[in-house]
Fold:
Amino acid sequence: MIGLAARLLRHRAGPAAATLLALIAGVMILVAMGTLVESGLRFRAEPRLWAAADAVIANRTVSHTYKEFGGDTTTSTVWLPEGGTVDAALVDRIRQVPGVAAVNGDTRVLIGSPAAVGHGWGTFAFAGRPIVAGAAPRADDEVLVDTRLGVAPGDRIDLVVGGVRRSYQVSGSAETGAAEVFFTDAQAARLSAHPGRVDAIGVRMAPGANLGAVREIASAFGATTYAGKDRGKVEQSENQAAQTLLVTAGSAFGGYVVLLIVSVVAGTIGLSVRHRRRDLALLRAVAATPGQVRRMLIAEAALLALVGSAIGGPAGLLAARWVHGELVGRGFVPAGFPMADGLFAVPAAVGTAVLVAVLAALVAARRVTGIKPIEALGEIAVEPRRGGRVRLVAGLLSLAAAGASGAFTLGAAGSTGALAGAVGMLYLFVTAVALLAPRINAYAARLLTKLLPRVWKVSGYLAAANLRANAQGMATVLTALVLSVGFGGSVWFLQNNLERQTTTQSSAGTLAERVLVAPGGLPLDAAREVRELAGVRAATGVRRTQVVVRALDGIEPVGAQSVDPADITSTMDLAVREGNLADLRAGTVALSATLASSSGWDVGDQAELWLGDGTSVTLDVIAIYGRGLGFGDVTLAAETVAGHTAGNTVDEILVSAGPEADTALAAWTAGRPGTEVLDAATRTRLIGTDLALGAWLNRLLIGVMVGYAALAAATTMVMAALARRRELAMLQLVGVTRRQIRRMVQAEQAGLLGTAVLIGATIAALTLSAIVNGLTGSPIPYVPPLGWVAVLGGTTLLALATTVWPVRRLLSAPPIDNIGVKE
Amino acid sequence: MPDNPGRTVEPAVRVEQLTRVYDTGGNQVTALAGINVGFGRGTFTAVMGPSGSGKSTLLQTAAGLDRPTSGRVVIGGTDLSGLSETRLTELRRTQIGFVFQAFNLIGALTVEENIALPLRLAGVRPDRAWLTQVVERVGLTDRLHHRPAALSGGQQQRVAIARALATRPEVIFSDEPTGALDSRTAAEVLTLLRAVVDEHGLTVVMVTHDPIAASYADRVLVLADGAIVADLPQLGAAGIAEHLASLDRRVLR
Structure:
């Protein structure tokens, strides 16, 4: 069977090439995605700071156990956005445990400039690294630094901690594997953002001693003990962020790509079976059992999948290497992050491709049962009417589901949720179109019967007749076109909408005319100083953080801002819908409308959530506001989060002041090197740049998906066009000129494209507005003018290149050569 | 395989009370209205009749390509009505050969591969001596490695006949085998079919509308409106044409 399958494939290279192309591109994307996911999954953080510790006690995650509908309980765990702390009293409790040889509580100090992390000297011993030069810090103004900071013993170094710059004497240097700075224990404690609490506790045990007692005490304090290889999880949060990014981005998009490949490969294989109907009928008549024909089609598909993998696999590895380089270049992934070699990703991608192809062939082969051997006798292969009521009902159900999911998506919070919702809704719409395509085509053709002859005369008349007759055959083309227009038109523009809305909300909601920023942040009391400057009406210190809230499926971190409530109503306008932002103080919270609706909280309710360090708090909801994208879904008073953040700085100070305050502000910043005054417009521009950078990966992945959909549409159309060899030859023989045929094809394309663009654009518009409405409350999405041009122009170009060119080629051969050919 | 000495009295193909009703959009069209006929072993029968008389439907149902609405088809002693699609195919593969009007061959395969295709599908090792004999008989020895596209229409039909012979079937069904050929080439093909019956004792059932083609047969069945209206011995081309013409006149009245 395989031999026969291979022979038949070689002879019918056109449809096979389309399927092969879809599989090559599919495997390539899957391998690239898979490598990202694999790198994330296989990443094991090596302990560096705690390399010489036997165990590290820390509080890095928050978990929530809840009951599912079925009665099962599920535990959802997230990494703490601000990295949790442990009670310093635990250090002494651990020290008393028999068998503990050494213990040290690490006070982690975030250094804003130069970017580094500080620790107390006591931690240095647990890193197990020798001092390269010099000695330990002895005085409070002495530090031992990692060689990466490029200073030698005896030099002085300026370190900005908590927004305050201090000069230190370098007492020594060491090679610790990262930009670390070691203060004296006393100085580290003084600089700590959370006095009385430590970031982690390192424990060294006497030989042969058991960790059991330590674990028990630690868990009584609500902390986790990490031993052995797990120690690395406590540190290297940059690598962990990269790990999470790779796994979530890769798997979310990989999943959608699998769906895309399923629909594309199923489409091309289905079409290739349809184009070979007579061959297959002949095989059946001559003596192939339905099972043999089915096995032949499956062998053929598996063969294509393997060949596709052989080409797509290596290409995917190259693509993964390129993506990795770009991710490192854009700061998404640290340069030292180890990338996997595809040991698992490649087999998984190949397995998926083979499975998809074989399943598609199985589905297509089901159709073979419907091929009657007597069809081989017929002069013209007439398409039988297929799919009756079942298909109609399934199509209408998908349509209804798409509508319902649109309503459901309204509740999704955050850009990732919105994106996932958008793609899900889109798939349902496209599925509905795929199922209803023959009916849509037939209906469109009836409408076009009057229109096309008016523009294209005889050619238009023929085109309309063809569209009516081929409603079934063109279903795949319509689906592929709708898929690419719908994808390009919604998911891509959704990203635009998110960015635009974020910057719009941010600039519209910022009442302050000036903004103070500094690398590494500004001191907590700076806002108070600025407020007293001449000409300043109001000043608000803002720190961006995250809090953890309950979501639909577990718990998730959401963006939050902690603000100094005093002047908040003069510096920012959050578009409050209910309640009053002036009521914001310790123990209260204001929520975005999106979060309020998804969590069911209202003004006056008690909101239970976790602060960035995992502290559970219950806060009174005092206001609900509209500008969640621009300012974060949660707004807290600075007092509420004090001591619960990794560093004690504010990210920016919003200053409400007229031009007369500029001199005073300039004087104030002059005393603080690195501090800058920005006007509101500059700040908005910077936010936009940051967002675009952050959205790079999303854009890349969406671009890949849209490209794949376009490729699918292109191959399908080329296949459909090349299959018309005989028909076009026949038309030429009965006296239709080449010019008329070309015009007929143009008219058909215009009709088909018009329908596809119309439906695709409608789907895109519905999807976009449902999600934009959910995010912003306004159902009118923003589409950049160039976007329209790109979608419409791109589709037209695609159709011209993939149909007009093949048809021109067909017409260049004398018609008599083509008339004898089957189909 | 095809030789079964104990059953020589039994015709190669027998149909009993065969009816076939098509349902076209609520309209019931009777293509066959209860036909009883047997095709004796080693005979060459031409089935004729005007368009829509049901002659092609008779061929397709008798050959197991299409299932009757009611009635029985017995080929070589096997009743087709109870068989699954797979069993039916297996029967077709060993007992029945086909020659259609056109598009008989798989374009991807060479002449030789096309001829051996039913054997290959059956998983049977081809009988080399027999195949060589068949190829020689149809005169294609020097064309074995060509593809069908490189052959003339008459040659393609000869390949189809060779393929039909390859499994030494009980019966060869042929639907307008010369419909697309010029008269000289048609004569070659018909002579070949005649020889197959005379030399190898095979049974051939051929649907045709051409009295000259029918004149190669031993027996002429004439159908009209799904029923047999005449069962004639060989009358010669002119006699057949005359008979058909009288039939047409009757229909017109």
